Amino acid sequence: MHSPIPPPIWLEPDPEHPSVLRPAPGSAADGSAASTGANASANPSASHRAGPSPAAATSRAHPARAAAAHPTMAFMASHPAHAIALGFGAGLARRAPGTVGTLWAWAAFLVMQPWLSDWGWAAVIAAGLLVGWWACTVTARHMGQPDSSHMVWDEVVAFWLVLWVLAPAGFWTQAYAFALFRLFDAVKFGPMAWADQAFKGFGPRGGFGVMLDDLAAAFCTLLVIAWWRF
After folding, report:
1. Which CA distances in Å does 182 have to 26, 129, 221?
2. Would the N or C end of the chain have less CB density within 10 A of its end CB?
3. Which pLDDT tens digit goes with each residue over 75-92?
């Protein structure tokens, strides 16, 4: 006989400690906590034997963990890695955060392009990949999701790479590259699917996988444009 599946638990930031999440009012965990408190009052000895709840132990062990489906501004501001992985706010978009993050990358590229040489762009992209690896590794662990769609730094750096290789390119070539990149990143077939599955999980390996599947999408984008041009 199978055990019943527990209801989902919705979390929200604690007003006094924004980097710590607590069960939202009315959620299963909130109700369970209230029920547990009532039982503890009726039977103090049983509460002493039971010890702290797993949720409370997890919260103490990982105060920045955010298993919520949608990160908040407070969560983004609670750690530098969160700000980077979430694209400095682009990843907070409730709809199509990957597309918003890629648009942010496009705008940032246009702003920085007059000031950076080829060597400058090479340095920015290399540093962005290394910092993004660290930021996505940390943020994935804190969110409790190995590759949340709200982590958009991978899209940012990968699309910078596309625009840098294509430069100088007109608006329509860049727009075509944007559409192709978003298609390859969303569909995830071939090399994108391999990168997404082979390195999925938490820790440095998972953070590397977050960056790698978007680099694969960038490579496919450039391949199609090269075929179209020549």
Report:
1. 38, 19, 9
2. N
3. 999 999 999 999 999 999
